[in-house]
Design brief:
heterodimer, A: about 325 residues, Immunoglobulin-like, Cytochrome Bc1 Complex, Chain D, domain 2, 2 domains, five-stranded mixed β-sheet, B: about 525 residues, mainly alpha, two-stranded antiparallel sheet, 2 strands, about 0% strand, globular
Chain lengths: ~325, ~525
């Protein structure tokens, strides 16, 4: 009867066999110790049983040697598990340099995925076989958690921050996509599927949707919101030049440093005064309420795509609409 | 009840009016008062658990609505965690037995002790009010910003209930600590203290240092929810992950409030029924303190996928492995105590065997979750649910029953049926494993927690789990039956039915209102069974 029940989820990413190997190792080690203790308890309980209740046991108080060995040996074994699991963890959280990036937003109770080429989908995620994929996501409301068991990846979606998971699918098929962090009424309905496709089919699927690419959409917003009027590409504007800025270290007005990443750009758009780059005046208005999560992601994608400083080719020129009206409405 | 059969004046029959109970300052009666409220909370929590298990027998969410289901698992946990697991051993067995065990007439502050009970009851009533008005749906963890700004349920009342109850815990910890420092009988040195007292001392430390943090945290949720203070909600400029740090700074050590006292019980019972000194007394004593101290340094292992930096995750993973060692040391010492013992198979020992089996599984599966590489996959799945039930129910509740069966004759002056009590231990052990064992597999397969409906392929394991829960329920019902029956028809226990060494067994059962006719004088260690004038096995 039990033969029909699988004990392990499908392995559909390069990371899954790594996680499973660690799982088998920890299972074997812990099962060994559990059996050791259980057998000792059972054997002692039977061998030294006294039915009368009025005898006494041997006058044994303890043994320093035993105490030390059952402190030190488990410590070293647990350190072996710690070491191995930490290596696997860094593989899980450190994405390779070249990944296919997909943006996502969780909200009560759905996942929306935005492909860079413009295609977007809800509760479904189409990815190509054999290529490292990085999903960058946030939440619009409460905490969620993006979980794909077949890939052994999970990360919480936190409002106000970006999280990411990465994986390289190794098997064509459909896999569960769950929300793992309790998020209210339809938490268990916030599920979907990941569809792993052959790369050429995936390419066909991507081009089937149309729509503006994220980069183009970001450029559009960059002009509409008036970002371009201060963030001049040659650095002569009131705000820092953005080309080539992504991934670099910046010194802040308070002397601290920050890496320019997705979260920092997002924060700079919504709460510009929080961590101001040194040498600039706190004149940027907040854009909270002016631009939604997808818009923010498109802006980030656009800023990432800007060429390195000194190559002003694709950089837009000044002249967007001034954000005067936008300044008035603060955060909710 | 017992007045007609046991004419001797004891703490139960000295006065029998309701007022004499509600205004009592006797630590033994206060222990009984706690037992009544905790039993009620356990009953309520079990009903909610039954609702959860019935819902999960089918993949579709068809027994109750999603909102009802979310309230069921939340109320189950709120009652079980704050009103059962935290007080069950310290407030019931600790209050009853600890002063007796150190040869004191009462705790250091008897009036404060009664006040702690009233605070506990007021917190309980707030939580009951939250329940009656429709319940709470945030999960017992009250994660923000859902709890502070989104949930439409009675978060304020339940949060206040837990907040208030916390003070009962703080005051009890304070009371125990002063009692253990100041009220020990002549000759009762620190290293002659029974290990249950050591465990309570370590627990008190956690109660005093940890509980204020959760109280403040829940109060901040109340402030944000009621007055819009921006603390945790990013839309108000707050940080939702800050809540998790603050919450787990208490709630992880709270696990040790739940498990340390039962560990103390296990030490008492193992020594008594093996008729031996507890193996490695000082290692077991200090491991309690080590757990209490290191327990404060592992909270962020609940946040491995919540966006903390990989390097801090590494540190917390390392510390989580380290905190497992003292628990392993205790388990090895209990096992070694059995070696060359004269093991008397009585019901309390059967519960201890159950404890060791389940606590082993609970503790060792904790290593899976402390492993960063595995926790990413296992976090927030049924693996976690299974793990903490093995610790909380398999450990804390089994340990409580070991202690209850051990001290029941002392509390009531009556013996229960050993055969029925042994059967109940077996029933609970089997039912428990059937309930929570399959959940480890469900978790590795990827079934997330707190799911009202789930994909079809998880059904068989869920049905097994629900079947196990019904066996578990039968086991608990059986305990209630034979214990209540023993109050009327149980054999008289006599002062020392287990031939145990502790001071609590040197006074009558039930003890007189002031515990001892003369203050006892202690001149040997806690478990000097082998020195007794009976033949060595």
């Amino acid at each position: 009867m039990l033969s029909g029940i699988p004990l392990f989820p499908e392995q559909a990413s390069t990371l899954a066999p790594e996680v499973d190997a660690l799982y088998f190792f920890v299972t074997a080690v812990t099962a060994f110790f559990a059996l050791l203790v259980v057998m000792a308890v059972v054997i002692f309980a039977i061998k030294y049983r006294d039915r009368t209740g009025d005898r006494v046991g041997a006058p044994i108080i303890g043994s320093i040697g035993l105490e030390l060995s059952w402190t030190i040996i488990p410590f070293f074994i647990s350190m072996a598990i710690f070491g191995w699991s930490t290596v696997v963890f860094f593989h899980l959280v450190r994405a390779p340099d070249q990944t296919l990036e997909i943006y996502s937003t969780g909200k009560q109770w759905m996942w929306r995925f935005q492909h860079i080429d413009g295609q977007s989908e809800i509760n479904e995620l189409h990815v190509p076989l054999g290529r490292p994929v990085k999903v960058i996501f946030t939440s619009e409301d409460v905490l969620h958690s993006l979980y794909i068991p077949a890939f052994r990846v999970k990360a919480d979606a936190i409002p106000g921050r970006y999280s990411s998971v990465w994986f390289t699918p190794t098997k064509v098929g459909e896999y569960h996509l769950f929300c793992a962090e309790y998020c209210g009424t339809k938490h268990s309905g916030m599920i979907g599927r990941v569809v792993v496709m052959e790369p050429n089919e995936h390419q066909a699927w991507l081009s089937g949707g149309g729509g503006l690419s994220m980069q183009a959409r970001g450029e559009q917003l960059f002009q509409q919101l008036g970002c371009a009027s201060c963030h001049l590409p040659d650095g002569s504007g009131r705000g820092p030049a953005l080309p080539g800025r992504f991934g670099t270290q910046e010194t802040l007005a308070n002397g601290a440093t920050v890496t320019v990443n997705d979260t920092y750009i997002r924060e700079s758009i919504l709460t510009p005064q929080m961590r101001l780059v040194a040498g600039y005046q706190p004149v940027m208005p907040t854009f909270q309420g002016q631009v939604n999560e997808e818009g923010l992601m498109s802006l980030i994608e656009y800023i990432k795509s800007l060429p390195t400083a000194g190559q002003p080719a694709a950089a837009p020129q000044a002249g967007g609409t001034a954000p005067a009206a936008a300044v008035q409405s603060g955060p909710r | 009840m017992s007045t007609t059969v046991l004419p001797r004046v004891n703490y139960l029959n000295v006065r029998t009016t309701v007022a004499s109970w509600l205004l009592t300052k006797d630590h033994k009666r206060i222990g009984v008062l706690y037992m009544i409220v905790v039993a009620l909370a356990f009953f309520l929590g079990s009903i909610f658990a039954a609702g959860v298990r019935i819902e999960l027998t089918t993949p579709a969410g068809d027994f109750v609505s999603a909102d009802t289901y979310n309230r069921l698992f939340t109320m189950h946990a709120v009652f079980m965690v704050f009103f059962v697991l935290i007080p069950v051993v310290p407030a019931i067995l600790g209050n009853f037995a600890m002063p007796l065990m150190i040869g004191a007439k009462d705790v250091a502050f008897p009036t404060l002790n009664l006040m702690s009970w009233y605070i506990f009851v007021i917190g309980f009533l707030f939580t009951i009010a939250a329940l009656v008005l429709g319940g709470v749906d945030t999960g017992w963890t009250f994660y923000t910003p859902y709890s502070s700004n989104v949930s439409a349920s009675n978060v304020l009342l339940a949060g206040l209930g837990v907040f208030i109850t916390g003070f009962s815990s703080i005051l009890t910890g304070l009371n125990f600590m002063v009692t253990i420092h100041r009220m020990r009988a002549p000759g009762m040195t620190w290293f002659r203290l029974p290990l249950f007292v050591w465990a309570l001392y370590a627990t008190s430390l956690v109660m005093i240092l940890g509980t204020p943090v959760v109280a403040i945290t829940l109060f901040m949720v109340v402030l944000e929810r009621a007055f819009g203070f921006g603390i945790f909600d990013p839309r108000l400029g707050g940080d939702p992950v800050l809540f998790q740090h603050l919450f787990w700074f208490y709630s992880h050590p709270a696990v040790y409030i739940m498990i340390l006292p039962p560990m103390g019980v296990i030490s008492e019972v193992v020594a008594c029924f093996s008729r031996k000194n507890l193996f490695g007394y000082s290692f077991v004593a200090f491991s309690s303190l080590a757990i209490a101290v290191f327990g404060f340094l592992v909270w962020a292992h609940h946040l491995f996928v919540a966006g903390i930096s990989p390097y801090s995750a590494m540190i917390f993973s390392f510390l989580s492995f380290a905190v497992a060692i003292p628990s392993a040391v205790k388990t090895f010492n209990w096992t070694a105590t059995l070696y060359q013992g004269a093991i008397w198979w009585r019901a309390p020992l059967m519960w201890v065997f159950g404890f060791i089996g389940l606590f082993l599984v609970g503790g060792l599966t904790g290593l899976f979750l402390a492993s960063l590489g595995l926790d990413v996959h296992l976090h927030d799945t049924y693996f976690v649910v299974a793990h903490f039930h093995y610790i909380m129910v398999g450990g804390a509740i089994m340990g409580f029953f070991a202690g209850l069966h051990y001290w029941w004759p002392k509390m009531t002056g009556r013996l229960y049926s050993n055969a029925l009590a042994t059967s109940a231990a077996v029933l609970v052990f089997v039912g428990f494993n059937l309930t929570f064992g399959p959940q480890f597999i469900l978790g590795y397969l990827g079934m997330p927690r707190r799911y009202h409906a789930y994909p079809d392929e998880f059904q068989v394991l869920n049905v097994l789990s629900s079947a196990g829960a019904s066996i578990l329920a039968a086991g608990y019902t059986l305990i209630a039956c034979y214990l209540l029956y023993s109050l009327w028809k149980g054999e008289e226990a006599g002062a020392n039915p287990w031939l145990a060494t502790g001071l609590e067994w040197k006074t009558e059962s039930p003890p007189s209102p002031h515990n001892f006719e003369e203050t006892p004088i202690v001149n040997e260690g806690a478990y000097e069974y082998s020195k007794r004038e009976i033949k060595v096995a």
